[in-house]
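Homework help board

Subject: predicted structure for assignment chain

Our instructor gave us this sequence and asked us to write out the predicted structure in token form, then describe one feature. I got the tokens but I'm not sure how to describe them. Can anyone check?
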Amino acid sequence: RCAVPAATLGALAAIYPYCFAAMALPGGSLIDFLGPRRTLTLGGLSRAAGSVVFGLASGFGVAFVGRLLVGLGASVILIAGLRLATEWFRAEEFGTVAGAAQSVGSIGALAGTTPLALLVEQIGWRQGFVTIGTTTAALAVACFLTVRDRPERGDERESRARPPEPGLREILAGIPSVIFNPRSWTVGLISGGIYGGFAAFVGLWGVPYLTQVHDLPRVRGANLVALAAVGLLVGAPLLGWLSDRLERRRVPLMTISGLNVLTWVALVVPGTPIAPDFMPLVCFLIGLGSSVVVLVFAAIREVNDPRYVGVALGFHNLPTFLSFGVMQWLTGIVLDRHWEGTLAAGARVYGAGAYRAAFALCLLLAAGAFVSACLAPETRGRNIWKAA
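My token output:
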């Protein structure tokens, strides 16, 4: 451990989300062109190679390359999975499927907490990343061998009625229709406003906040932050299922994003830190609030041309992960500016006021997400692109 400034640490952690933002439109186009199966396989192999490179890295430059490969591979996984769902499930089931997919991601986030720490303790962090990489490679091969892009069309009339798949030139020509569709931004900014705060808390500053401000043991702090992943795990499938059953998108978007605002208010507004006994609930609600992202996936698909599903879903990653990366960096800057010079074992210690100022940025973004939710169109679970 050393006295690494929070801004530097935040910028280093932001490499991963910047990959997602950079690959938002290229990745979506790739999925529409190659199909989900090939894209999932290539993404998995890239993640596997990145994990192995990172585990074997002898310096920062090599570690950076490994981190970059992991980010590039991961950036297409969820979008390709959702693109696959559009072929295998009915449109009115998409919210439920998106929620289930997000829950699987939450399980991965939980695996990256205590289980990963135990693995690293047993075999070391280098061997741990190599093991993760080889396992991911095996899963990528299994995906290529077993996954199919769409069901077999037994009905010849249905096959003839199916519109032809767009070629690469047509897909690229369709990108502007997604970018310049104002409804894409109205819907997409909801995720950007919510996920930036979620990522800053869960991925970087939640555990330091709990250990430095509330004086909790590090393991206890990590377990509390894991409750945010539990909130996402519980909320995503429930919210997706409920939205599909009600055939409503806008009301659930407004309700959950409003709850997210109130959660950040509890961390920012009181003059004294919230009592530790209430922190489990706060952490859970931060995760529950972020589950609204599953409805954004559904809604952004429903306000765009159905020929470019991959592009539309990929576009969602642009505001989401730009917010993710920028918030990691900005919250670090705010913490550094409020640092009072305290060190513990060579690491910077920040006070309650510093964290309150950093979390105020999260509150500001959450409020913006709520406004976007209020302005979002109601699709009723159906594609409304022609009326856009």
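Reply (TA_rk): Your tokens look well-formed. For the description, you could write something like this. Residues 100 and 228 are 16 Å apart (CA to CA). That's the kind of observation they're looking for.
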